[in-house]
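ingest -> fold -> write
write: protein_1
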Amino acid sequence: MADPKGFMTTPRQEWPRRPVEERVRDWDEVYVPGALLPIISEQADRCMDCGVPFCHQACPLGNLIPDWNDLVSREDWRAASDRLHATNNFPEFTGRLCPAPCEAGCVLAINQPAVTIKNVECAIADRAWEEGFTPARPPERLSGKTVAVIGSGPTGLAAAQQLTRAGHTVAVYEKDDRIGGLMRYGIPAFKMEKRHLERRIGQMLAEGTRFRTSTAVGRDVPAAGLRGRYDAVVIATGATAWRELPVPGRELHGIHQAMEYLPLANRVCEGDLEVSPLSAAGKHVVIVGGGDTGADCLGTAVREGAASVTQLDIYAQPGAERDEDSDPWPTYPKIYRLSAAHEEARELRTAPAADADARLFAASTLRFTGDERGQVRSLHLTEVDERRLPLPGTGRALPADLVLLALGFSGPDREDGLIEQLGLALGPRGTIARDDGFATNVPGVFAAGDAARGQSLIVWAIAEGRAVAAAVDRYLTGSSRLPAPITPTDRPMTV
């Protein structure tokens, strides 16, 4: 420990966000540039160097958190980068996008604010790029084996990088015109600027990974033919089959899935479009769904200039403190959190119907009504009890010119024909079935990430990519030195 009393003498201080009025006028990241490094060494000093660090257990990557906290407190950035990259291919992604289950498992969090692990991770990753601590690591020799990775989200990229570094010739197939999956077109730039993604893609290209964009396997390339051309195939297409809302009026114009809306806004930022065809500008927007995707829609609609934005969450508003009976330490607690988007909505008063921020809790959609042209104009809702049953006399209507459905995902998309062409077996939840070694029922075909696990966090996606790479390496060569941080059956800590 650099400072044995740091956790007692230093209060938690997070990376400050830019003023709301400033940041909603652009698409840059919400944090104050350069404001993290001056505070991060003291924040790392708060780490207790626990004998049994539960942050390791809470993080599926097994990040060496006390190690790199100590190194940051001593400002040994090169060594900290080495420790961080030993377990995580893309810490600048997780440092910005992960909800930090490691902080929920921090021993200090039993009775104090946790160490700012996520901020320390982000600081190390950014400093590593600035100082040149992340050079390309091409293999010393090639194995002669070839692997196709289908999907370029965090799982696919992690698997591809690990397998390339192991000496295999890897090609990544992506149906969109740019690499990155949901990190490219699903995550708004104000949460993670795409330059971070471009930097890693450049590193992977220098290492020898090949990329095939605008290529949907199953539609543009026959899946069976692709399997015949490679020694192994990894399916990492994600869980992109969105859940529907079967209520009266769903057929009205102006009701769209979140993943129809967010990619268009991202394409505006990429320079592909001047204005999104689904822009929220001047419209009354209602978002159905209380998760992170809904919050992404909220921040996007605010920046597009919506007349109002309201977010519906079917669950009751959680408390500010952990419930020790239902969410005991070190599990990830269900508490009230104020994301950057909700902070913006609260300060700008985007939702007159909501109490504190843009959210209406314990609210369920009953139906939509529209005008004579078939355009949605109102969303009718009711309050619900803890069993999600309607409470009599609580019905009301919200003005709605644009409705965004952010209800999560049920499994991999079936439209491209990939699953049917390969004859892949599916599990009871509609995800791709696999054994304890990530192998599907088709020899030489492996499945990882949300396509097989189901909708999850980015940190689990990267862990899946690293673990499936070890399984494929073992299949191709008979053994593997690649790390496998998780198994297909591992799950987050719960009571």
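write: protein_2
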Amino acid sequence: MAQTMRPNIAGSLFATDHKPHPVQDTLVAVTLVLGVVSLVTAMFDHLHLLSSWTGLVGILTGAYGQFISETTRERFGLILGLGASAVGFFLGMAHGGLFGGLIG
């Protein structure tokens, strides 16, 4: 049981492997920003284009980030961003969609 006596030097509860992951961290940040933008702009009917497109891109970047993520910390941030992106995307689709008002 020597592992129980080792000090926790991880620095974070979620960073479990002590290695840098620049690509995954960038995808987490991009997904979170797109999710917040999508969610905030979904509250306004006339911003449905921005809401739906940022939500769609946030869903895609979050899904790819989940595919290549390596730690719980990365997955936690990606799930938050994915959830916000999905809600913003669906509300944007309900208010007019990806091309609402631009085609015919």
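write: annotation protein_2
The helical segments are 22-41, 48-68, 72-95.
DSSP finds three helices and no strands in the chain.
pipeline exit 0
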